[in-house]
Specification:
By secondary structure, the chain is an alpha/beta fold. It has 4 helices and 3 strands; from the N terminus they run αβαβαβα. The protein has a single domain, classed as STAS domain (Transcription Regulator spoIIAA, 2-Layer Sandwich), CATH 3.30.750. The longest helix is centred in the middle third of the chain and has 16 residues.
Length: about 90
Amino acid sequence: MDATNSQEFEVACTPWIDQGVKHIIVDLTALEYVSSMGLRYFVNVGKRLNDGGGTLRLCGVNGIVKQLFQITRLTNVFPMHDTVEAALASV
């Protein structure tokens, strides 16, 4: 998820948020890289959901992606779960 494709995440989430979806769960199991631009789009989507009383929940965060979320302290911003099932159970 870098500068060339990270905006696709926000574009994909926007219709759901506009339709009133309060919680979005994103499975990042297969994500191997996220740039600062990618983080920006996570923050944008999370903020829009939070403003509407919802949450952006992440699961399957591992490797360097997990380290980046920890370094930037975004682990304090986004609820993180090991599995999609755990994320669903927390909503």
